[in-house]
Amino acid sequence: MAAKTERQFVRKTGGICLRADARWAGRMSRGYPLMFCGDVSVMLPGNALGAFLLHQRLSEGQIPALLPLTQAEREHCRNRLVGQVAVITGGASGIGAATARMFTRHGARVVIADIQPSLGEKLLKELGPQAEYVECDVRKEEDIEKAISKAYELENRLDVVHSNAGIIGCVGPIDEVRIDEYDATIAVDLRAAVIAVKHAVRFMKPQKRGSIVITGSVASVRGGMGPHGYTVAKAGLLGLVNSCAAELGQHNIRINMISPELVSTPLAAFALAALAEGGSQSVTVDDIDRIVKQNSMLPDRLLTHLDIANAALFLASDMGGYISGHNLVVDGGKTAAHVLQAGGNHWSTKYMPMVAENDFVNGRDVEGLHDTP
């Protein structure tokens, strides 16, 4: 940050540029908020009296001004998860893969739990020795337990569990819903998260720390944003987060949810194509990108997997250290402003059989099978 820019910022805010030293700030800030600005942090006095006292302390030499961040401090900003261990279910593709990249980039060791071995191995080659792959069908409690136990055994600690696996599930009007398909949807989209939280807490309680992040959906807060079974499951996840936050805070365990709107994956494209008139219209990932961008509340802004990975990093790391029981909706403000028109719920227009698992595992494009917000 150039000296001229520093002076301009200080003049506009009435603040003082400071070195971001946690011990020093805790002793000297007297409650004044610190704000990062480039390679320095800025102490904001908040009012005229605060400004007077702050400048007085500066003039008396109690506060060193205009000191840049040290290299170690800059590294901390770039390495939020150094030495930590994380598990990501549905981690081989889509949001899960983006989050695995983000976590390893910030220094974590990551266990990728998924049923897509080819994509998992491909991701391992990209991420290197910081990542491990575990075959995990989230419908089976023993598979989730195995993945979480493997993560703990890496460093005898478990810092982050990201329950991310999900499917679109049963689609169609409520009076045509097949209960076996509904049960299958709940098994992946809700029950699996309960299991992941259960086994995560078994390791996090004794160590008295941990962060659990669950991938939800805008369907958790607004009807018509997904199929019926999917919506029930995502609303259930929100209940799970609220309930567990009330219990786990005493153990210094945080639990939060990320609720994105539609993110393009091949499975989402396949589902939307099947719902099109007669199934005759093809829908590609590029089509979904275009649709999402056109309907975005933010002009020409496309929601991407990276946006969700950034949110996961925030909630998993000490940046979100006092946040628990929160549903972080990542939709550009759509659920805050959008009113669904009557008849606009395309998820209820026609019945569509659930995508057969074997169709994807045995040859079709499997990216996104367990990763569909």
UniProtKB/TrEMBL annotation:
<dbReference type="Pfam" id="PF13561">
    <property type="entry name" value="adh_short_C2"/>
</dbReference>
<protein>
    <submittedName>
        <fullName>Uncharacterized protein</fullName>
    </submittedName>
</protein>
<dbReference type="InterPro" id="IPR036291">
    <property type="entry name" value="NAD(P)-bd_dom_sf"/>
</dbReference>
<comment type="similarity">
    <text>Belongs to the short-chain dehydrogenases/reductases (SDR) family.</text>
</comment>
<dbReference type="InterPro" id="IPR002347">
    <property type="entry name" value="SDR_fam"/>
</dbReference>
